[in-house]
Design brief:
The protein is mainly alpha-helical and 128 residues long. The chain has two domains: 60 residues; 65 residues. The protein contains four helices and no strands. Helix 1 packs antiparallel against helix 2.
């Protein structure tokens, strides 16, 4: 599979995980759960959907779906979050960008970093 196709699939799984997060985070408070708890549960559900989607669809055939791949994926997700926060804080703070522009830069940076790390490390092809 080409890197471009993997990138497209990565984007589609990311959109699906984001929509899942939103739906769960909105549905649970409507059913009586507190918003903070609902958001945490929504994040966890979306995270698992994301891992499953990336391991079976985005990076299909990479041969690293079990064991260490989940731990590596989790670490990459943490790095992506840290990069998102750092870029947003820098852009919205000292650089003086609007919140919308800072958010776009932060999300784009985190997505590109996550794609690269997941492709090259979390789900890299097993040696032959």
């Amino acid at each position: 599979m080409t890197p471009a196709l993997e990138g497209l699939r990565f984007t589609l799984v990311g959109i699906a995980a984001t929509l899942c997060h939103l739906l769960v985070a909105l549905a649970l408070p409507a059913a009586g759960m507190g918003a903070e708890r609902a958001n945490l549960l929504a994040f966890l559900v979306a995270f698992l959907l994301s891992f499953g989607g990336h391991s079976r669809f985005s990076f299909q055939g990479h041969g690293r779906r079990r064991g260490g791949a989940f731990a590596r994926f989790s670490l990459v997700a943490g790095c992506g979050f840290a990069a998102n926060q750092a870029v947003f804080a820098l852009a919205a703070g000292p650089l003086g960008w609007s919140a919308s522009a800072a958010l776009a830069a932060a999300v784009g940076t985190a997505a590109a970093l996550s794609f690269a790390l997941n492709r090259l490390w979390s789900f890299r092809r097993a040696p032959r």
